[in-house]
Write a structure and sequence with these properties.
mainly alpha, Endonuclease Iii, domain 2, elongated
Length: 211
């Protein structure tokens, strides 16, 4: 896909999604970090239901550390991988208290060194909290990038690198949320809503159903 078409794609997405924001609920950088860690293999809706109660009793790193792994587990038991997530969240709270005075570090290496935090989670935090030009590639973005032809790649990292090369500068800060929301509600894995898609004219996918 050429640069002009890609620019048109993102202009269309911005017009359709004028306020591209995460659907995870949070009141601080630390809460967003925890919510993103909890979101692995879980929906944002399920995470929000759990964190509403969790953050009410433990709103910060000190609170989560004091709460303890077992009680964290009780609050998130409806999420996938809740045992591992409880262990990771408790551990990262302790590290942030000990090494970063309770504040989320604005540094990729520091973020990725935390339990349960990989490149995708670090990218989400850097982009959403610190307005860094990063794009976290999840299953929705991977699908949209490949299906449309905007940034084809065989792995999430390959798609991320390609997106960083081709997304126009004016759209880089919003690209993550534009693509993920488009993939979540329009360019869905099953029965994509091609007839209602603002990218239907520039999308390279040969199986579009415009009915």
């Amino acid at each position: 896909m050429d640069a002009h078409t890609i620019a048109n794609c993102f202009a269309a997405l911005r017009a359709a999604i004028p306020q591209p924001r995460t659907e995870l609920h949070y009141a601080s950088p630390f809460q967003l970090l925890v919510a993103v860690v909890l979101s692995a293999q879980s929906t944002d809706k399920a995470v929000n239901q759990c964190t509403a109660k969790l953050f009410a009793v433990a709103p910060d790193a000190q609170g989560l550390w004091d709460l303890g792994e077992e009680r964290i587990r009780e609050h998130i038991r409806h999420l996938g991988l809740f045992n591992t997530k409880a262990r990771n969240v408790h551990a990262l709270a302790g590290i942030i208290l000990r090494d970063y005075q309770g504040e989320v570090p604005r540094d990729r290496q520091a973020l990725e060194s935390l339990p349960g935090v990989g490149r995708k989670t670090a990218n989400v935090v850097l982009n959403t909290v610190f307005a860094e030009p990063t794009i976290a590639v999840d299953t929705h973005i991977f699908r949209v990038a490949n299906r449309t032809g905007i940034a084809p790649g065989e792995t999430p990292r390959a798609v991320e690198d390609q997106l960083m090369r081709v997304v126009p500068q004016e759209f880089v800060l919003d690209a993550h949320h534009l693509l993920i929301l488009h993939g979540r509600y329009t360019c869905t894995a099953r029965k994509p809503r091609c007839g209602a898609c603002v990218l239907h004219d520039c999308c390279a996918w040969p199986n579009k159903n415009l009915d």
